């Protein structure tokens, strides 16, 4: 069973900030270089369109992967939105907030649909496990989501 702590702490049990790309090992260098090159070539608008289309396609793959265990499914969605959050905060107008909001709404609808079909969710132990996963999911994305998660 996945515990809430797994969403907030690393392997060594120390708290870490998932948005700190140095701590998580996520490098955005290639993205920033591509953005700079496209700006220098004066084709930034085309790059932005290409980027948004690719992120939508990636989101669709992640959101539709309901055959994964629920914890893996939720972790993939969290990872997607952590990346979106970092890109929104570190670039100017590469990804529109409206598109990210739309993707967020799609993700939540898919999560709700998948949770409704979790096998054995009416059994006490499985219910508690699913509840713990969803609470961890909400807590992890509380600050990072484009919308208020608590609603």
Structure overview:
This protein has helices at 5-8, 21-24, 29-40, 44-63, 70-90, 97-116, 124-141. The chain is elongated and about 60 Å long. It has 151 residues and is mostly helical. It is 66% helix and 0% strand. The protein has one domain (5-141). Helix 3 runs antiparallel to helix 4 (44-63), helix 5 runs antiparallel to helix 6 and helix 5 (70-90) runs parallel beside helix 7 (124-141).
Task: Summarize the SSE layout with pairings.
Elements: H1 5-8, H2 21-24, H3 29-40, H4 44-63, H5 70-90, H6 97-116, H7 124-141
Properties at a glance:
mainly alpha
Quick structural overview:
The protein has 151 residues and is mostly helical. The protein has helices at 5-8, 21-24, 29-40, 44-63, 70-90, 97-116, 124-141.
Shape: elongated
Number of domains: 1
pLDDT < 50 stretches: 1-12
Largest sheet, strands/sense/barrel:
none
Helical/strand content category: mainly alpha
The number of strands is: 0
Average predicted local confidence, pLDDT: 78
- The radius of gyration over CA amounts to 17 Å
Strand content: under 5%
Number of helices, where a helix is a run of at least 4 consecutive DSSP H or I residues = 7
- Could you state the oligomeric state of the chains shown? single chain
Q: Which H/E pattern describes the elements?
A: HHHHHHH
User: Helicity range of the residues?
Assistant: 55-70%
Distance linking N and C termini: 26 Å
């Amino acid at each position: 069973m996945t515990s809430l702590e797994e969403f907030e702490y690393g392997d060594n049990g120390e708290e870490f900030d998932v948005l700190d790309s140095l701590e998580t090992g996520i490098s955005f260098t290639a993205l920033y270089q591509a953005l700079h090159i496209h700006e220098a070539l004066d084709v930034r608008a085309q790059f932005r369109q290409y980027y948004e289309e690719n992120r939508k396609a990636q989101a669709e793959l992640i959101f539709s992967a309901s055959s994964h265990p629920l914890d893996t499914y939720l972790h993939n969605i969290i990872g997607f939105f952590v990346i979106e959050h970092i890109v929104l905060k570190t670039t100017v107008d590469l990804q529109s907030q409206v598109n990210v909001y739309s993707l967020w709404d799609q993700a939540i609808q898919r999560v709700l649909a998948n949770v409704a079909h979790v096998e054995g969710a009416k059994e006490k132990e499985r219910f508690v496990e699913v509840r713990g996963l969803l609470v961890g999911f909400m807590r992890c994305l509380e600050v990072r989501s484009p919308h208020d998660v608590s609603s």
